[in-house]
Amino acid sequence: MIGTIAKFESGTLLRSPQTWAICAVIAAIFGYLFLQSLEDFLKVQPSLALQDHPPGLTGYLSARFLATLAPLFSVLGPLFAMRSFSDEFRHQTMALWQSSPVSNTSLVLGKFFGVLIPLTLLAFLAALMPAAMGLIVNIDLATLLLAALGLLLVAASCAAIGVYFSSLTKQAMIAIVASLGVVTLLWLLGGASFTNPAMLALQQFSITSHLSGFFQGYLQSKDLLYFVLLTVLFLALTVIRLGSLRNSGNHNA
Amino acid sequence: MSSDPTPLLQASALTRMVDTTAVVDNVSLSLQRGDILGLLGLNGAGKSTTLKMLAGVLTPDAGQISIAGHSLLDDPMAAKQQIGFLPDQPPVYPDMSVAGFLKLSAQLRRVPSNNIEKQLHTIVERCELGSVTKKRIGNLSKGYQQRVGLAQALIHKPAVALLDEPSNGLDPQQMQSMRTLITEVAENSCVIFSTHLLSEVTAICNRIAVMHEGKLVHNQRSDENPEQLQSLFNQLVQKDSGNTVT
Fold first, then answer.
1. B63: which DSSP letter?
2. With left for phi above 0 and alpha for psi between -120 and 50, is residue B88 left, alpha or beta?
3. CA-CA distance, A223 to A230, in Å (whole number)?
4. Which of A8, A99, A249 sits opposite B104 (nearest CB)?
5. Range of B219's domain?
6. Quick check: A244 contacting B, CB < 8 Å?
7. How far apart are the first and last CA of chain A?
């Protein structure tokens, strides 16, 4: 059932011209940033060669190109997820799901995975550009896959935030603004230099403090867990929200 | 009517509160195979809320619902497999094709994959949608969209069909076809449809229930005391003279 719902959701996204317009712009940005990173690498290559352990092309592109895309993916997640429930409320189609033998958990997971499909394709496209260099030089595939995983995890957790906020309102615009508010906060927490112990603890919840390893070629289980928990938290909140809708009956927020 | 004594739909003491007001107050219903219950009432009487509770869209504040022997509250997945629900606004996706949408509806209702095409063909024929199956739903007239909504509610041959004002947007010829369809559906299941038109329920229903201010004020077979029903309904209409009722 989750597969059926995911197929429906991704189909809805892929039928929308907005999705293709976004993807076209994103692909152009990918291309520009990739070529710029490649040019930078060629410029600094002589000085890198003097280092004891110089980064290879893959390491350089992961840190400079793919890492740069992470904030972009954290916007794309909510952008693709903002209509997942808002549109159901607006078109009054929630009754179809609520009267069908579909649990709230299946519905939320189906919608989430449906949103994740185009995001995965975009992460694949981003990783494909450095991977294409493998035709002329040796590349470190593991480093590349780890960086792509980092992008996907950022996109997935931010999409989960988007799915949750879309379940709160029938206005997709409100959902995206609220989602991006939370996402921005999660980024900003990592950028500030706090001295207060409470704020330092809060900093552990930032995306930045858990993302750098993915682009530097090492994977820590705590980082992986952070993104998984962030995703599960917001999906669980969405399930609770849908349950409360059956009690309140108010789809008109 | 079947000789099977187990009701296909059994609702007891359903109550739904909004703040401190009971919008549905202690409503009980029991329907057997072959029953077509017309749920009559003026706007705001509680018909739609009752149907939404019976369909599992809303949770009742009190009361129990059993669909084909399965409790809707304790075993919702099994119960919902036996429910077909058409809300007052057909739950259709404007950007999907009719066939695509009906296929999705069948999958959601757990129709076996090897049976979907057959049931799709049957329901398209019964709802007279053959000429529009490849069209986008958003490009169809309101009457056709209503028929697509009806088709999604019936594609899995539910034991209980709950139809909220199914004749909305239909022309007289389409209304007649819809009545024939409801009569056919009720041969193997039970049907509740809500309306505020007395003429509509008397035309096809073998049972009539009247709701007023959340309460069930009349619940009898259609051939019992038709004069009493007419008189009761006239009184309700006079009380609420702002509503136009035929």
1. E
2. alpha
3. 11
4. A8
5. 1-80+199-246
6. no
7. 28
Domain membership of residue B219 (yes or no) is yes
In a domain, B6, yes or no: yes
User: Least CB-CB distance to B58: which of A93, A97, A246?
Assistant: A246
Q: Is residue A25 part of a domain?
A: yes
Res. A72 pLDDT band, cuts 50 70 90 = very high
Number of domains observed in the structure of chain B:
1
What CATH number has the domain bearing residue B29? 3.40.50.300
Range of the domain at A157: 2-248
The answer to whether residues B16 and B23 touch, using CB atoms and an 8 Å cutoff, is yes
Q: Which pLDDT score is estimated for A218?
A: 82
Best B18, B58, B146 member to test A by mutation, with max A CBs in 10 Å, is B58
Which residue(s) pair with B31 in the sheet?
Answer: B9
Q: What residues of chain B score a pLDDT lower than 50?
A: 1-2, 244-246
- B128 DSSP 8-state letter: T
In a domain, B29, yes or no: yes
Find the residue in B nearest to A89 (Cα): B91
Asked if residue B47 is part of any domain, the answer here is: yes
Q: Could you count the other beta carbons within 10 Å of the beta carbon of residue A193? A: 7
State how many domains chain A has. Answer: 1
How close, in Å, is residue A16 to chain B by CA atoms?
Answer: 9
Residue of B56, B89, B107 lying closest to A99 (CB–CB): B56
